[in-house]
Every structure is written in structure tokens, then in C-alpha cells.
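chain below, 85 aa
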Amino acid sequence: MKIRAQRTSELWTFAVSVRMIAFDDKRWEGLKGGYKVLYDPRPALRELESGSPVEPIWKELWEDLHHQGDIGEASYCSVTDIALQ
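prediction:
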């Protein structure tokens, strides 16, 4: 948790610049997760950045972005944010 709080502004700039879709983009609302139903992962991704307890957040992301080997558009768009955690 402390490592996340000590991120440099350069890393944050990098993370924002490589996002597939900006967090304020309405397209997130129309993306599907692993169950092939609409899933907007932004609230969970924001919680990861905030330093909240990570176990329930990772569980939500794993369950909603991946299902029995299936992934959706929301899964692809979340990769950068997940990788930076």
C-alpha cells in the first residue's frame, strides 16, 4: 500500500497516457466482461488506486473480467491499470 502512495507523477502520467480508454469516457459503460454482460470495472480499478483492502477488489475483477477462459472488452481495457498495481 505504501508503494502505491509513493508513486511519482511520471508513473501516473505514464499510466494515464497508455490507457485504452480514458476513465471519463462513456464507452466504459457499454463494455462486457467475462460473462459477456455489461461490466464497468472503473469503480474497482479506482479502489485499487485508493489503497483500499485489495483482496475483495481483486476477487471482483477476476470474477467479472474473466469467466472460464472468456474475457470481454472491459478485460482488455483494464489491462494497463491492473498491470500497474
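The two ends are 10 Å apart (CA to CA). The first strand starts at residue 66 and ends at 67.
thats it, cya
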